Amino acid sequence: MELKFFPYELQLRHTFTVASYSRTTTPDVQVEISYDGFTGYGEASMPPYLGQTVESVCSFLSKVDLGRFSDPFQIEDILAYVDSLSPGDTAAKAAVDIALHDLVGKLLGQPWWRIWGLDAAKAPSTTFTIGIDTPEVVKAKTQECAGQFNILKVKVGLGTDAEMIRAIREVTDLPLAVDANQGWKDRQAALDEIFWLKENGVVMVEQPMAKERRDDNAWITEHSPIPVYADEAVQRLADIEALKGAYDGINIKLMKSTGMREAWKMATCARAAGMKVMLGCMTETSCAVTAAAQLSPLADFADLDGNLLISNDRFEGVLVRGGKLVLPDRPGLGLKLL
What we know:
The protein is of the alpha/beta class. It has 12 helices and 17 strands. The chain has helices spanning 54-61, 75-84, 90-108, 112-115, 135-145, 161-169, 187-199, 214-223, 240-243, 254-257, 260-272, 286-293; strands at residues 2-7, 10-17, 22-26, 28-35, 38-45, 128-130, 152-155, 176-179, 202-206, 228-230, 249-253, 276-280, 301-302, 315-316, 319-321, 324-326, 336-337. The strands form 5 sheets. It has an 8-stranded parallel sheet with strand order 6-7-8-9-10-11-12-13. A 3-stranded antiparallel sheet has the order 1-4-5. The chain is globular and about 55 Å long.
């Protein structure tokens, strides 16, 4: 197996603002693993809060020696070795994982949703994200996308939440999900807002308060009239046990979980613990978004719109039709290079 990689900066269609920062680009590294005439594609996307950079990802990938493995089907052994190379670098590890899964799926001649025994017809609708902005811009963004989606996701947490929701409600009555990105500071105020949000058509909320404030988040979850999902509070499989009772569900993102292998295990573990499953993404090309979408038939919520937020996608993969995810019925991830 031969591993290649190169930096690729993602260009956002609009300035993207959440409770803690704004940006117009996202650093990214594209990965290819070749074997026996087949090539698998992967990527590492690095929004600021992950604490990873193009330099750190490339440094990690330069240490990966896939030549020590003769068979790409040894996914467990290969990815256990990759994970052992450092305690962090989750996005870099995800890039290898995604490319390896794409490669193995191509060698098998089947898409991963079928290999996992899932029904592509059960893929859910995906949310489309509206970042924090002025009411005028929020309305314009909503008008641009409302007719294409069945549910929207709204970033909140900067003190303009009501203004944002009212602006959206001037344009559409679609159901909404909200993501506070740890932006709420007082649990009673957060709960009061959640009740108001429910009255305004919000059906779920992500990460109300700082991930370190487990007891406050648990109190909100206990009293909330809508499901509360962990996002920043859950990174990998080992985190799930401590989240029982503190959240109704978890948001699984490949850049945090180290890729598809662990994401599958996290979804299985969450289900066994009686928790809901959401699949999310960063701003990514269709490569990583389509990798996450392979799991989507078993999810309660999907927020897989990262490829729709950029203007320089390299791939065609998962599509959105009538607001619903449509998984490609092609081997591996089912990607086409543009």
